[in-house]
Specification:
alpha+beta; Ribosomal Protein S5, domain 2; 5-stranded mixed beta sheet
Length: 249
């Protein structure tokens, strides 16, 4: 089996994180996974949604927004505002990002505040939702350290790092971290979100007009977990570096 970019089945694309891409955000990261690039920014608001007040729910909230910039794809993608509504795909993805991050945040420790996470796709080549989760997790960890340092929070509410990766069945074989060319032709489309402990946050999988065997599911899970471990290691390397020399923001 030959992958379009020469990678091994278990090999994720080269990953990098550029910090402080948005100076007004409390934490911001430009995450690159191969040719997919997503800007992730985190800001905090000293208020909670009205529904939390009305239902007397304690603690805080985290919410995410996701969009693809018009020039992120080969043919221009109209902005959602031009259509007057958010498309179904964007709604699904931003809810996934929000769920993934809330799973590793202590909302009680956050207090009556809202964390806003914005993910904007700069360049799309497959796996934009998984790259967004991985980049947003790092941006959130950086932002929460800054909040604690500035005494806006008593302690960082982030409990664990989280990352995500895609997988699929290509020519009958399980592969991880699909680029766009692969994503178009795989017979199974799979997304996995997990914490640094290896606990699952979300598993999404479906046959693309095909079925898949238990053994193939097991292979995709194994490759996905290895890919996420590689991504967590890359996140940790960045956090270790900025602990030595904190970035200006």
């Amino acid at each position: 089996m030959n992958r379009s970019d020469g990678r091994l089945p278990e090999q994720i694309r080269p990953v990098s994180f550029e910090l402080n891409i948005a100076p007004h955000a409390s934490g911001s990261v430009l995450v690159s996974m191969g040719n997919t690039r997503v800007i992730c920014g985190v800001m905090i608001e000293e208020a909670v949604p009205r529904w939390m007040k009305e239902q007397a729910i304690s603690g805080g909230w985290l919410t995410a927004e996701y969009s693809m910039l018009p020039y992120s794809t080969q043919t221009r993608k109209p902005r959602d505002i031009a259509k007057g509504r958010l498309d179904g795909r964007s709604t699904e993805i931003q809810r996934l990002i929000g769920r993934s991050l809330r799973a590793v945040v202590d909302l009680e420790k956050l207090g009556p505040r809202t964390i806003w996470v914005d993910c904007d796709v700069l360049q799309a080549d497959g796996g934009t939702r998984t790259a967004a989760i991985t980049g947003a997790s790092l941006a959130l960890a950086i932002a929460c350290r800054k909040f604690a340092k500035e005494k806006k929070l008593d302690a960082p509410p982030v409990q664990k790092l989280v990352a995500a990766v895609s997988a699929g069945i290509l020519d009958g074989n399980a592969v991880v971290d699909l680029n766009y060319e692969e994503d178009k032709i795989v017979t199974v489309d799979f997304n996995l979100v997990a914490t640094e402990d290896g606990d699952f946050v979300e598993v999404q999988g479906s046959g693309e007009e095909a079925t898949f065997a238990q053994s193939q599911l097991d292979e995709m899970l194994a490759l996905g977990r290895k890919g996420i471990a590689d991504l967590i290691a890359a996140q940790r390397a960045v956090l270790a570096r900025i602990m030595v020399s904190p970035p200006e923001n």
